[in-house]
C-alpha cells in the first residue's frame, strides 16, 4: 500500500556563514576565502517540524561550529 506523501523527508543543510562569504568572492583574495560550502544530508519529520530546519553543525571550511539551514533541492 503506497502513501501519497511520506512523513519523513530528506533535507539538505547548508552552512549559512559560507553562503554569505561566497557572495563577496568577486573582489577578494583567493587565499583568504574558503574554497567550498559545507552541506549535510539528514531527515526530518514533516508533521513535527513544518518550518525550515536549522541545526548547529561543524563547517570544515570555516573551521568552527555554525548554523546550517535547510535549502531547497
Q: Concise description?
A:
This protein is mainly β and 73 residues long.
Report on this structure.
One of its GO terms (molecular function) is structural constituent of ribosome. Its main location: plastid. InterPro entries: Ribosomal_bL33, Ribosomal_bL33_CS, Ribosomal_bL33_sf, Ribosomal_zn-bd. It is found in: Plastid, Chloroplast. With 73 residues, this protein is mainly β. It has a domain of 48 residues: Rubrerythrin, domain 2 (Single Sheet). The chain contains one helix and four strands, in the order E-H-E-E-E. A four-stranded antiparallel β-sheet has the order 2-1-4-3. It is elongated, with a radius of gyration of 15 Å. 8% of the residues are buried. The mean pLDDT is 82.
Average pLDDT, to the nearest integer? 82
Largest sheet: 4 strands, antiparallel
- Name of the CATH first level of one domain: Mainly Beta
Give the fraction of residues assigned to helices. Answer: 10-25%
The helix tally amounts to: 1
C-alpha geometry: elongated
Q: At the third CATH level, what is the topology name of one domain?
A: Rubrerythrin, domain 2
Q: How many extended strands?
A: 4
Keywords: Chloroplast, Plastid, Ribonucleoprotein, Ribosomal protein
GO biological process, one term: translation
GO molecular function: structural constituent of ribosome
InterPro entries: Ribosomal_bL33 (IPR001705), Ribosomal_bL33_CS (IPR018264), Ribosomal_bL33_sf (IPR038584), Ribosomal_zn-bd (IPR011332)
